[in-house]
Model the fold of this input.
Amino acid sequence: MRSRNVLTGMLLGAGSLAGTLLFRRRLARRRERVDVYFGDGSMVSLAKPGEAEPLLRRARRILELAS
Amino acid sequence: MDAAAALERLREISSQVRTAVIFERGGKVVGSTLADEQRAKGVAGEAEALLNEAEQRRDDATGEFAQLEVALQAGSVFVVRDGDRLIAATTQPEPTVGLVFYDLKSCLRDLETEAAPKQRATAKRKPATRTKKTDAKS
Done:
């Protein structure tokens, strides 16, 4: 009986952990960001509001013009 | 392949790309899926300004700008460069990023083949020469 309770608890814990990870991944993907790739294979990701904002503004303008 | 054909092909192969504008540095529009020319020019101008700002964010990277993605709530904006030509495209939110980059690069390469067609070296056939085999023993 006790081992069954432990197993149920572990399953619940693992389930909630997986759920949290999936939720955080989805949330991160939805965040507005700029990814810049260079010819040498390097990449710069701008996600902080201060540094990414000017580029995000231009991209919003492009979406407006293209719609 | 001309710009219109390359863009038509892009629309066929990529269901994620909503609109695309091919342009050169300086803002000259080469081709566009937008019906309004002024809008296409506007997109090219904004995209060039976007990549100029992006290039300034480079830290220690030595390579030139290759491509960028701006992910927004309303959709994503892509700019891809191939030589002097660039393509700016818009997609729905959360696109398959790698696939979109691949399709946009393919579109620019389709154009490149038209701009600089590879000349095939015409191989001249050598006249067959017969050499008499001389048997050393005889």
